[in-house]
Design goal:
With about 100 residues, the protein is an alpha+beta fold. The chain contains 2 helices and 6 strands.
Length: about 100
């Protein structure tokens, strides 16, 4: 397994359920992911789960964008988390 970080970027679409950072963390916990939240800046919350660190951009109390890194590329746990975000309606963006 490589140790190069894997960068991800997701945006909300009209079909994406509007959710607070706390509700997103609760959904991930219910799906079996260990999750920790902490505020890092005005309008940004960091969510960590295993080797994945996500920065949630929050507007009016709801997550609007998700940017992050996974410590390991092709990590099955990280891939499952990313797939879950897509099932929730988050759309991956191309580019870094």
């Amino acid at each position: 397994m490589t140790t190069e970080p894997d960068y991800i970027h997701y945006r909300a679409e009209p079909q994406t359920a509007r959710t607070s950072p706390e509700a997103l963390a609760a959904m991930l916990k219910q799906s079996g992911f260990p999750v920790a939240l902490r505020a890092v800046a005005d309008g940004q919350v960091e969510l960590t789960s295993n080797d994945v660190r996500l920065t949630l951009t929050v507007e009016s109390g709801f997550v609007e964008r998700i940017d992050g890194t996974s410590t390991f590329v092709n990590d099955a746990r990280a891939d499952r988390l990313f797939e879950l975000l897509e099932v929730m309606g988050w759309v991956p963006e191309d580019g870094d």
